[in-house]
Each structure stands twice: as C-alpha cells, then as structure tokens.
Amino acid sequence: MTVYPDYSLKKLNTFGFDVRAKFFAAPETIEALGELLFDNRYARLPQLVLGGGSNMLFCADFDGLVIQPRITGIEKIEETADDVYLRVGAGVVWDDFVAYAVQHHWGGVENLSFIPGHVGASPVQNIGAYGAEAKDSIRQVECILKATGERKVFTAGECAFGYRDSIFKQAWRGRLIVTHVIFQLAKHPVLRTHYGNVEEELRKYPEVTLQTLRKAIIAIRRKRLPDPQELGSAGSFFKNPVVPKKLADELISKDPRMTAYPINVDYVKLPAARLIEQAGWKGMRAGAVGVHSRQALVIVHYGGGTGKEALALSSLICQSVYEKFGVQLEPEVNIVE
Ligand SMILES: Cc1cc2nc3c(=O)[nH]c(=O)nc-3n(C[C@H](O)[C@H](O)[C@H](O)COP(=O)(O)OP(=O)(O)OC[C@H]3O[C@@H](n4cnc5c(N)ncnc54)[C@H](O)[C@@H]3O)c2cc1C
Q1: Which listed site, 94, 269, 279, 288, has its alpha carbon 20 to 30 Å from 296?
Q2: What is residue 3's predicted lDDT score, i.e. its pLDDT?
Q3: Residue owning the nearest CA to atom 45 of ligand 1
Q4: CB neighbours of 225 closer than 8 A, spacing ≥ 6?
Q5: 267 pairs with which residues across the strands?
Q6: How many CA atoms are closer than 13 Å to the CA of 266, on its beta-carbon side?
C-alpha cells in the first residue's frame, strides 16, 4: 500500500487550512490497514485517523502518520419484517449512505441528511441534527485496535453515546480505527418532523415522505450553513453548554429569545449560538477567520489563514461569553495542535 511522504491535508480538512502530514496513507481494506499498523517504518510515529476532515481543526503540520480509512461498501446483512441491518464501510461518505437508505425507503438516518464526513466518524462523534442522532440507528461498531491489530466489536450499549460524544472520544480515544458500522433501519419508519422549521419547509412539498423530509432538511441546511466548497468551516465549533437551570432562568429573564432544552430537573442545555450572538460575535471578522453571519456557532475561514488564528478567535469568544454570561463553552471540533 502506498504511503505518501510530506502530504498536503489542505483538501482533506473542510476548514481548508494548509497543513501537511509527515506521512499519509488511505487503506481500502482491513488487511491493508492491518499491514500499515505493523509496518516498522511508521509504527512508532504518532498516528491520526482522519475521515472527511469535517470536524478537525489543524493548528500545525502533523508530525506523524495520518490514516484515512477508505473501506467502502454497503451490505445488507439481515432483514426482518420491520427492519434491515446494513454493514457500512468506514470510508463511505455519510450523505451517500443517507441517500442510499432514503432511496430504499429505509428510515432512521434521514434527519442526518447532508452532514459532511464519512461513516467511520459517525459513531465517534455521535452526529446529530434535527432531533436525531447516529446512536438511534447504530447497533454495532467494528474496529481494529491499533496496538495489537485485533478486531473488536462494540455493541451500541458499549459505545457510551452522549451528546456529540462516545467511548471512542473517551476511554478508547486514539486507540482504535473504526472499519465498519452496523445500522438498523426501519422498513415502516415514523418520520420525525417536529424540530426547528422542518414542518414549515415540508409544507412546500405535496406529501411528507422520507424523500421529501430529506429534501426539506437539505434545503434548510443549505440556507443556514456555509458550503465547505465555498467557505471553510467545521460546522458547529462549540457544543451547546449544559448549565444549572437557575443560571438559565436568569439568562432567559434578560433575553426573551434565549431558549433552554431540559436535560434533567437541575440542568438544561442552552444554545451556544444565541450566547455568542448576544456577546456580539455574529458576523465578526478577524483577518482570515471570522464568525459566520447566519450561524454564530460556526467559525469560518476566508482563505489564506491558519488554524492557530481560528483557535485564537475561539478563545476570545469563550472568554467573552464566560465574562458576560458565566457560561463556559467547550469546543465540538477536534483540535490538532
Ligand atoms: C458545514 C458543516 C456542517 C456540519 N453539520 C453537522 C451536524 O449537523 N451535526 C453534526 O453532528 N456534525 C456536523 N458537522 C461536523 C462533522 O460533519 C461531523 O462531526 C462528522 O461526523 C465528521 O466526520 P469526518 O469523517 O469528517 O470526521 P473527521 O473530522 O475526519 O474526524 C472527526 C473525529 O473522528 C475521528 N475519526 C474519523 N474517522 C475515524 C475512524 N474511522 N475511526 C476512528 N476514529 C475516526 C477522528 O480522529 C476525529 O477525532 C458539520 C460539519 C460541517 C463542515
């Protein structure tokens, strides 16, 4: 398998930052991946697994081996009266998988239409949008352990899925490579339309089906989020913070447009975008980077800038939100310093 030295990652991260990897390889099979992990020339180097690079912030060149698994294929492994089970390669583009599911009238992932990235990252990130999360449909995650080359299968219960979080970002962080994900999709799906302005958008279509729901979500996302082909970003830079209900009530009393989603009796989740907007950052530009004019949660790269500039801007935003509201923001993006 080819290992490329001094490889540009500019087109492999949606921010479009001009960074390089000391070595880069894109194995297309589990066997090639196994060989790569045990190749003595690279085994002792730091390693980074990359999907579509749509949730990465590279602040410097990567002085090691970047591995982009390109294992493809969507295989039906089981079917019952109500469900199908699909085994999907980590290198499949996420939205190609969603399109495939919708085309076959199988429901579960349609609300996650048009999220950039590859299938392998979906359990790592537990991607979510419009009232759905990857964890709702994931049944198993197949991995290769970096240290031993051993294959390990995690059941959904073992993945410790949380809000944009999983065991792959915690206890198993950096120790494995996802090779396949098993999804359970419904043959008679119940559509989830009660989120944001989905119902409003759906009124433009003659009927509500998996196909029109997907179209409506794509239309909303196109209006709200920058297209990485035109403007660099990694989607939401920050997570929505979970805060004590008492603090949220105070903030809501001062800002009628502030909303809160209950987590439990004591805690609620606040929209980070509203906090950032209220702190005056929406649409602000600092050199080659800035805050998106339509979505304050998104830090954008206009071109010619560096990841360090984006990181510095994010620190200023965090500081000012903390000073103004007493709320600590946490990055959603994976930062490589
Ligand atoms: C315009 C835009 C909109 C977005 N909207 C959303 C949204 O609505 N909801 C949402 O949840 N996210 C959203 N995102 C973020 C991003 O699309 C997701 O986090 C996506 O899952 C990242 O996939 P990726 O393949 O690009 O992973 P990368 O960014 O390449 O990697 C992300 C993390 O996963 C790890 N990883 C990747 N592949 C593997 C693997 N095979 N095995 C082990 N670890 C791996 C990486 O090491 C890294 O830690 C958006 C991003 C952009 C640019």
Answers
A1: 94
A2: 97
A3: 121
A4: 233, 235, 292, 294, 295, 298
A5: 244
A6: 0
The domains located in the chain, with CATH, are 4-67 (3.30.43.10), 74-223 (3.30.465.10), 227-336 (3.90.78.10)
Q: Is 332 a catalytic residue?
A: yes
Tell me the C-alpha distance between 182 and 143, whole Å.
11
- Please give the Cα distance from 180 to 154 (Å, whole number): 11
Determine contact, residues 269/260, Cβ cutoff 8 Å.
yes
In tens, the pLDDT along 289-307 reads 999 999 999 999 999 999 9
User: According to the model, what pLDDT value does residue 146 have?
Assistant: 94
In angstroms, the CA 159 to CA 169 distance is 10
* Positions of the chain with pLDDT lower than 70, given as ranges: none
Closest CA to 128 of 286, 240, 290: 240
**Structure confidence at residue 265 (pLDDT):** 93
Q: Tell me the three state secondary structure of residue 275.
A: helix
- Residue tagged active-site, from 122, 137, 236, 314: 236
pLDDT score recorded for residue 1: 85
